[in-house]
Amino acid sequence: MMSPTPVIAVFDVGKTNKKLFLFDQDYRIVYEKSARFTETVDEDGFACENLQSLRLSVFDSLSEIFRLKEFAVKAVNFSAYGASLVYLDETGQAIAPLYNYLKPYPEELSHELYANYGGELPFSTQTASPVLGSLNSGLQLYRIKHRQPALYQRIQYALHLPQYLSFLLSGLYYSDLTSIGCHTALWDFGNNRYHDWVNGEGLAVKLAPIAEADKALPALFPGNNYKVGIGLHDSSAALIPYLVNFHEPFILISTGTWCISLNPFNQSALTADELDKDCLFYIGYQGKHVKASRLFSGLEHEQQVKRIAAHFNQDAIKFRNMFFNPAVILKLKKQFPQMQKDVFAKASLFATRDLAAFEDDIEAYHQLMLDLVCLQVGSTGIILNDASVKRIFVDGGFSKNSIYMNLLAAAFPNMETFAASMAQASAVGAALSIHQEWNVKPIATDIIGLKYYAASGALVL
C-alpha cells in the first residue's frame, strides 16, 4: 500500500468564492473544493458575510479531508480578503456580524476622527490609507466604540478575517502585519507601529499580539499532528511566490476587476500626490513595505467589451482570444487622438469614443486595449521610481490577453515583460509562508510559468 502524500491545506476565502486546496510538496494542487454561501444581513439590513456558514464549512471541510487516506495533512493556512474584522468575546464567540466593507460609513464620525488626529491628508499619508470609509477596517472598530458602546465593552479581540480562521483551529489570538498594513488606517508606516490614534482611542487593547507571518501554531481542532498558520491578507499572499522565486527587483501587475501594480522594492515615503492617485502601501509577509497603485481597469474592460459586441453585433466571447495585430495599432495611432501614456487618469478615453468611427470590431477592441494600457502605464509609473527594476510580471486575466501584453512590452521597452501563469497565487503564497513547518523539500523553482513578450522596435507607445 502506498504511503499517503504529505500536503498542506489552504483555505482561500474571497468575497464571493471560498476555496480549499491541498498542495503537495512540489506545490501542485492535488485536491480542490469550492463553495459559495448566501449572504446574511446585519442589524441595519445591510448584506454581509455569513460567518456561521463560513465557520462550519472550515470544520466540515477539514474533517472530510482528514478522512481521505491518500493524504497526510501536515499544516493548514489561510488567505482571505482584508478590511473585515471579526469581533470575539472572552469565550471566543463571535458577537457581531462580519460587517461588509462596502457599508456606508457615517461621515460625521470620520470627520471627527480626522479632525482629532491631524486632518485628512496627514492622517491618510501617515497610515498609507486613502479615505475609504468602511474599507479602512480600523474605522469599523472606531464606529462600534462610538455608536455601539455596549457591544464594544464585550469585545475581547477584534481579529481580521484570516486570523479569525486561524483562531478557529488553534484557539490562539494573533494579529498579522499583512492584514494590519492594508489600508486599515491602523498603522503608522513612518514609525513602524500602530498610529497614535489607535492608542489615543484605547483600541490597542482590542487588538491581539502581532505574530510573524511564518509562525505556525499547534492545532486544537482534532486531526493528525498538523500545524496552523496565522493566515495572510490575500493580496500580500499573492506576492510571496514571486518574492521567493525572483530576487532581482521587479514589479507585479495583478490583474482582475482591479489591476494592482505592486513594487516590493520601493519603500520611499508615500506623498500626498501619490495618495491622491490611489497609491498606498501594503505590508509584505516579511514586514517590508510594498508600494501599490490601483486601477479599476478590469471592470472598464468588461463594460466596454459589451458595448463593442453590441455595436458590431458580435459575441463578447470573441474578444477573449483576439490576436494582436501591430498594423492595426499603427493605423489607430495615426487616425485617432491618443492618450499620453505617462499621464495619470483613473478611466480611459475609450468610453468617450464613437464606435461608428471604427472600421470593425477588431479595430475597436485594439483601441480599447491601447487606451487601457496607456492608463496602466500611468498607474504603474507612479510606483516604479527605481531604475533597478528591470522586470514586469503580469498575472490574472490580462496576462492571457496577447494585445494587452504586447502593448505593455512596447510601453516599457527597457524592461523585460512576462505573462505569469500560476494556479491560485494567494493560496500558494499562504502555503509558502510556512514552508519550513511542513515541507522537507526545497522550494520548487517551477511554481510560476512565464511567457516573455519582446518590445517591438517598430511599435513604440
From TrEMBL:
Keywords: Kinase, Transferase. It comes from the Bacteria. One of its GO terms (molecular function) is kinase activity. Residues 248-437 form the Carbohydrate kinase FGGY C-terminal domain. Residues 8-189 form the Carbohydrate kinase FGGY N-terminal domain. Belongs to the FGGY kinase family. This is Sugar (Pentulose or hexulose) kinase. It comes from Mucilaginibacter phyllosphaerae.
